[in-house]
Amino acid sequence: MKRKLENELIEWKNREEHLPLLLRGARQVGKSYLVEYFGKTHFENVIKVDFEKQPDLNRCFKTRDPLEIIKQLELSFKSKIIPGKTLLFLDEIQECPNALVSLRYFKELMKELHVIAAGSLMEFLLKKKKYSFPVGRVEFLYLRPFSFEEFLQEFSPIAFERLQSVTLKNSFSDFEHLELLKWVRKFFFIGGMPDAIRTYKSTNSFLECQKVHRRILQAYESDFGKYSEHVEHKYLQMIFLKVPSLVGQILKYSHIDKETRSRDLKPAIHLLTSAGLILPVFATTASGLPLHAHIQDHRFKLMFLDIGLLQTASQVDAQDFFEKDILQINAGMLAEQFVAQEILANDLPDQNRSLLFWEKKRSANAEVDFVKTIDSKIIAIEVKAGATGKLRSLHSFLKLKNLPIGVRISENVLSLYDHILSIPLYLTAHLDRLTLDVLKKNK
Q1: In what order do the strands lie in the sheet with 295-304?
Q2: Residue 201's CB: how many other CB atoms inside 10 A?
Q3: 225, exposed or middle or buried, with CB in 10 Å at 0-12, 13-18, 19+?
Q4: Which of 13, 61, 127, 197 stands the most exposed, by the fewest C-beta atoms within 10 Å?
């Protein structure tokens, strides 16, 4: 299945000077599959060291000398490792701290060799002070669940191609608009986890997708034991089970559990965030650039890793969901979750920036769902579940900050009216491009 990040890997491979690459992301978003596919497609051979399944290979990394490491791996795999022709893939690298340390020496002493490392729980390893991370000697890429466009490319390549050229002057017909909203509806339920997408392609069954979701959710919970030295298992499970009902709301710890102190819950939230299972959206005053310099880190909302997992965790019935209007089950929550995923999935792949929102709490409460920067301009984004809805907060923000344009993402067709660019849900990936077009015309 095609992933946009493959283009970044190709660019990395073809670079004259490349650093060892660390691919990060939550478990089961497709890191191993992507690297193996990339290796088989663009190298003569791939040597994959899976430290979880092959713990005996840890011994190869007791030395700091890359040449000695390679000799031992060649003996183990009975295959030559040739710079420029072989991709060395170190999977689940958090299980072998010495391998993580070795990346700096590959960069310094064997820089011609292409090395990719991946792991889902590296943050916990990096918290241990005795491990010195090779800062400046490794580059990062982040892989997230499938975006809506990656999903659409799998099922309707023609529709995917059409999205790339849409503008205000060259938009969709009413029929095309409704057809694309149907695909959004499917994505809301299937989500972006590769196994769920693969299962739907082969079975055409939403119930089978839910089985995959449940298996993934259970696998995440089984991982909590690996976090135990950092925080108590019960707090991780408590938050993980509660977050689906809190998506899109400003977090109050009492909503998780009235009897548990916030100081016990905060470390658990931080760890689940580090593992990529929950996504924080922080309040910002948006008083200037960069927006992240104006974060109010005590005020935040939580999103889930994936909208499909969220649906299953919320115990939504598949048949009930598809018999009703596209967003009328937990309407605002789903729309906001979708847009959060899309913004992150289409951010720069070497960035892992938190999402931001804006709120005003003085004379009248006002909140804008997301705030981001596009071409050094502050852009406010309001998400509406249906095709209608007032935009008082968005207009308040534009007036307060003296900004020329705001964005509404909803079921509405693509349009521009009264300084508001209305973007349909299926075009969220093109938020930056469409907004820039309007800003350039307003100059």
Answers
A1: 295-304, 278-284, 355-360, 366-368
A2: 12
A3: exposed
A4: 127
